[in-house]
Design a protein that fits this description.
There is one protein chain. The protein is an alpha/beta fold. It has a single domain, classed as 2-enoyl-CoA Hydratase, Chain A, domain 1 (Alpha-Beta Complex), CATH 3.90.226.10. Helices cover 40% and strands 18% of the residues. The protein contains 5 helices and 5 strands; from the N terminus they run αααβββαβαβ. A 5-stranded mixed sheet has the order 1-2-3-4-5, with helices on both faces. It is globular, with a radius of gyration of 16 Å.
C-alpha cells in the first residue's frame, strides 16, 4: 500500500510541475506566475480542490503521443474567496503554451457545468496561445463547447475572465 501511495504522490508532483522547471523558470523570467500560483493567490488559503489532475490529451499526430503531461495545460477545480464558493480554471502556459485541446476544453466545460448546477461564479484565468493546432478541428470544437457554456451561464451565474498573457 505504501508503494501505491508513493506512486500517487509522485504522479501528483509531476502534474503540479506542469511543463517542468525549465518552463516554470521561463514563465517567472517573463514576470508571470504559473497557473497554480495564480490560483493560490486568488483563493482562500487551503480551499482549492482540483478536478481531473491526471487528464491527458488524446492526440497521436505530430509526435504528440510521446508528450502527454498530466492536466493537459489547464488547472480546474473549486475553492472559496472570502468564504464563498467559486469554480476556477487557470490555463498553464508551461504546457504547450496553454493551448486549448479537446480534453483541455472538456475540463473547462465540466467546471462551468458544475458552477451552473451549484449557482456559483466561475473565474477563468486565461493564458493561452490559442487552439492546439496539432489536434485540428477537435481543438476548435473545444472553443465552441466553452463558448456554448458562456451563453448558457449568461444571467445564471457570474462569469469572470482574466487575460493573463
Amino acid at each position: 500500500m505504501k508503494d501505491i501511495l508513493e506512486q500517487l504522490e509522485a504522479r501528483r508532483a509531476a502534474a503540479r510541475a506542469g511543463g517542468g522547471q525549465r518552463r516554470i523558470d521561463a514563465q517567472h523570467a517573463r514576470g508571470k506566475l504559473t497557473a497554480r500560483e495564480r490560483i493560490e493567490l486568488l483563493l482562500d488559503e487551503g480551499s482549492f480542490e482540483e478536478f481531473d489532475m491526471f487528464v491527458a490529451h488524446r492526440c497521436t499526430d505530430f509526435g504528440m503521443e510521446d508528450d502527454r503531461p498530466a492536466g493537459d495545460g489547464v488547472v480546474t477545480g473549486w475553492g472559496t474567496i472570502n468564504g464563498r464558493m467559486i469554480y476556477v480554471f487557470s490555463q498553464d502556459f508551461t504546457v504547450f503554451g496553454g493551448s486549448l485541446s479537446e480534453t483541455h476544453a472538456q475540463k473547462i466545460c465540466k467546471i462551468m457545468d458544475m458552477a451552473m448546477q451549484n449557482g456559483a461564479p466561475v473565474i477563468g484565468l486565461n493564458d493561452s496561445g490559442g487552439a492546439r493546432i496539432q489536434e485540428g478541428v477537435a481543438s476548435l470544437a473545444g472553443y465552441a463547447d466553452v463558448f456554448q457554456r458562456n451563453i448558457m451561464a449568461s444571467g445564471v451565474v457570474p462569469q469572470i475572465s482574466v487575460i493573463m498573457g
